[in-house]
Structures are given as structure tokens and as C-alpha cells.
Write a structure and sequence with these properties.
single chain; 291 residues; mainly alpha; disordered N terminus; disordered C terminus
Length: 291
């Protein structure tokens, strides 16, 4: 009897299955062992409808649906059933929603959700009220601070604006991200925004900072390759003597959105001025980045 129980436990460990024989456990078995995603989705639905580990069942079902090119259906499922999930599960569900929006090319929805996540950070509602959270990447656990998460979300928001070819808004968002937690990949994206707006001298300055190792991640081979590519884009303008910078259009972001970010940054650097120079003249276009 003991041997049989031990064998069953090791089976669950090997296949990363939760113990028991509930609808959710059967769904995970069908997903991970039998490799039958459609049957797993049916069982995940059953788990949700019977109240069996709804937090995990809804999230796992949405992930499997995305893999089956049923992202639109997954979005509707999360929107319809997330009210049955715990408060602790909401952030994970938002992250799944962001992936689904990307899969479907829903840029406006991505932007709205990213701004909502930033608003939650400003209001102290992120990380379930804690200053750090445990994240996973490639099977490895590590701690993420609120400051790092803010910069990451701003980077994603900047990228979404870039996909809309709204390079001026993306530039301002990337600048904020760099002021919070400078990083080479986001610096390259900022450079691309500047090039698209013919701010060539400023773009070169950003690239020089990476080449001189002034920014975290400057030694990363991918970042170095991107710098080389962006330098090549600048060469024709440099040879033509067209590296003069045009001032960025600073009239793109909502004051309340920037005030929220400034308040966060003031917590991390108490002696920072209330508003950094690039945001001094912001006023119109109030719907673009309102939180």
C-alpha cells in the first residue's frame, strides 16, 4: 500500500500534476500527459463550473486556448469568469490577457490594460500590497521590485505605441522607463522612436551611451547587434549633415498619468524635482495616456 502511494506521488511529481482526482486534476493530466488540448479545455470548463480551483483552471484553460488559436474565446472566458477568482489571481489573469491581446493584435486593449496596471502600482494595489513579488523565467525564480515592474510595464506600453506608429508617445514613455530603470533594449527602442521622428542627433546620443557601457545590458550581444543596425540607419543622415534634432512633441500625455508616475519616482528618489524637463509643456491630447 505504501509502495503504491509512493509510486503515485512520484508520478504526480514527474508529470508536474496536482494530487487528487478532481476535474481540474483530470484536466491537467489530459493536458500534460495525454497531450489532448481540446479534451483538456472541456475538463477545465468543468472545473470552473464546479468551482474546482477556479483561479488555476481559468488561467490554464486560457493558455491552452491560446495555443489552439482560440485566443478570442480565451479573452471572453477570462472577462466572463474572472469575478469568480480570488484577488490574488487577478494580476496573473491580467498578464494572460496581455498575451492574448498581443496574439489578436488588439493594441488599444493592450494599452488600456497596461495603463490600468500602472494605475494600480501608483495606488499601491499591485503585488498584493507587497514591495516585491516572485517571478519565474525559464524555470528560475527571482524577486522583482515595484520599481522594476513599473519600468517593464512602461517598456511594454512604449512598444504598443510603436506598433501603432505613435512614435512621439512611445518616446515619452520610453524616456520615463529609462529614468526609472535604464536598460539597453529599451534604449534601442527609444533610439528607433527618435529616428522615426528625425531626431537623429538625440538618437546617436542614446546609442553612444550603450556603446560606452553606461546602461544596464550594454554588453548583451543582441543589444550590440541592434546598436550596429541602428547606427547603419543613421549613417545616410550623418553623411548628409542632417543630424540636427527636432524637439519632441511634448503635448501627448495626460498630466494625471505623468503626475502618478512622478509621485512613484519621488518615492524612490525623494530629492527629484516634481516634473522632469521633457514633461514641462504637456497639456493637450489628454486621451492618449490618461490613467
Amino acid at each position: 500500500m505504501k509502495g503504491s502511494l509512493k509510486k503515485q506521488e512520484s508520478y504526480h511529481v514527474i508529470h508536474k500534476l496536482p494530487p487528487g482526482d478532481s476535474p481540474y486534476v483530470r484536466a491537467k493530466h489530459v493536458q500534460l500527459v495525454e497531450k489532448d488540448p481540446e479534451a483538456a479545455i472541456v475538463l477545465f470548463w468543468k472545473a470552473i463550473n464546479t468551482g474546482d480551483r477556479v483561479d488555476s483552471a481559468l488561467k490554464d484553460m486560457a493558455v491552452v486556448m491560446k495555443q489552439q488559436d482560440r485566443a478570442e474565446e480565451a479573452i471572453e472566458a477570462i472577462k466572463s469568469f474572472r469575478h469568480q477568482c480570488s484577488k490574488q489571481a487577478q494580476e496573473s489573469l491580467d498578464n494572460v490577457l496581455l498575451d492574448l491581446y498581443k496574439k489578436c493584435g488588439k493594441l488599444d486593449e493592450q494599452i488600456d490594460l497596461l495603463k490600468q496596471k500602472l494605475r494600480m502600482i501608483h495606488q499601491g494595489e499591485a503585488f498584493n500590497g507587497k514591495s516585491t513579488k516572485t517571478a519565474r523565467s525559464h524555470g528560475r525564480k527571482f524577486q522583482v521590485t515595484v520599481k522594476q515592474e513599473t519600468s517593464r510595464i512602461l517598456g511594454n506600453l512604449g512598444w504598443a505605441y510603436m506598433q501603432q506608429a505613435n512614435y512621439a508617445a512611445a518616446e515619452i514613455v520610453y524616456r520615463k522607463a529609462q529614468q526609472i530603470d535604464p536598460e539597453a533594449n529599451k534604449a534601442c527602442n527609444l533610439c528607433m522612436c527618435l529616428i522615426k521622428q528625425t531626431q537623429y542627433a538625440e538618437a546617436r546620443s542614446v546609442l553612444e551611451d550603450i556603446l560606452q557601457g553606461k546602461i544596464s545590458g550594454s554588453d548583451d550581444p543582441k543589444s550590440r547587434n541592434r546598436v550596429e543596425e541602428l547606427m547603419k540607419e543613421l549613417e545616410p543622415w550623418e553623411s548628409a549633415g542632417s543630424l540636427s534634432s527636432n524637439p519632441a512633441d511634448l503635448s501627448l500625455l495626460e498630466d494625471s498619468f505623468l503626475d502618478g508616475l512622478d509621485q512613484l519616482m519621488n518615492q524612490w528618489t525623494p530629492f527629484r524635482s516634481r516634473r522632469l524637463p521633457i514633461f514641462e509643456e504637456i497639456s493637450p491630447y489628454r486621451d492618449q495616456l490618461a490613467c
